[in-house]
Amino acid sequence: MLTDTDALTYLEIADLRVAFLDRDPRTDATPLVLLHGGAVDHRMWAPQLDAFPERRVIAPDARGHGWSSRATEARLCDDVVALLDALEIDRAVVAGISMGGATAVDLALEHPDRVAGVVAGGVGTSEPVFEDSWALDLFAQWQRAEAAGDPQAWMAAFMAFVPGPHRTRSDVDPAVWDAVSAMAAHTLSAHVVVDADGTPLPPAKPTGVTDTWARLPHVSVPVLAVVGALDGDDHRAMAERLATLTPRGELVVVEETAHYPNMERPKEFNRVIADFLASHAL
User: Fold this and answer.
1) Which of 35, 44, 10 is nearest to 92 (CA)?
2) Alpha-carbon distance values, 73 to 41, 103, 226 (Å)
3) Phi, psi (degrees; rounded to nearest 5) at 146
4) Could you say which of 33, 47, 135, 154 would form a disulfide bridge with 266 (CB–CB 3.0 to 4.6 Å)?
5) Residue 221 DSSP code
6) Domains in the chain: ranges and CATH
7) Phi then psi dihedrals of residue 153, to 5 deg
8) For residue 257, how far is the Cα from the chain centroid?
9) pLDDT tens across 84-96, in order?
């Protein structure tokens, strides 16, 4: 399910060495930029890379992920704009899952002239709201694992998001489970810094964009909020809120999937994106 990393292109942009895949059919269609979730990388988009042959498709690794530079303090949306500048792309449709979806929304808020449309999966904005006990418990486990420098516990907490709160590992396609696990393990091995005492430290967190929820009514481009029906309650609530607060927002729920609908039901996810692009002539 994972893509071949030999096809990656690398660019040095300011303080960042960015790795990305670039499918460029040399057409005039608006490019599509695919932004991965936290702890995974561009490879999560393997089922989408060749699904839109009429347009250029770009899938970068965010700083601190995949084959890009280790994380330093920066806004991920600014990194995307820097990549667009380097590739001489004026505007793009930006689609993301989880952290990538939040970055896509940030782009529409901070750089509205560079965005033609937004697809945000399993997220609302880069200021998430978590109230459900399932999610809060997982985040607490994750933080304890980081503090203890325990990669096994870190992975266990992270991987719980793959089935979501309503399923177990056995309910997930093994290929999807293995792909997410491999990406997260690479993040740990390539981007977690070890301090002088030998304790693993979590990657530096990117700085965020503020007042995001209050600013959503000013987003003028079409916004598609996508969420798995089996994702956590908070993720589904944030996606619904995003679709409601943006003037041109809409919500699609992908059945029988949790946090990674593009990986679990790629044909349906690709159809949803294609319909969104067509309906707005993007």
Assistant:
1) 35
2) 19, 15, 28
3) -60, -45
4) 47
5) S
6) 5-129+205-279 (3.40.50.1820)
7) -70, -35
8) 16
9) 999 999 999 999 9
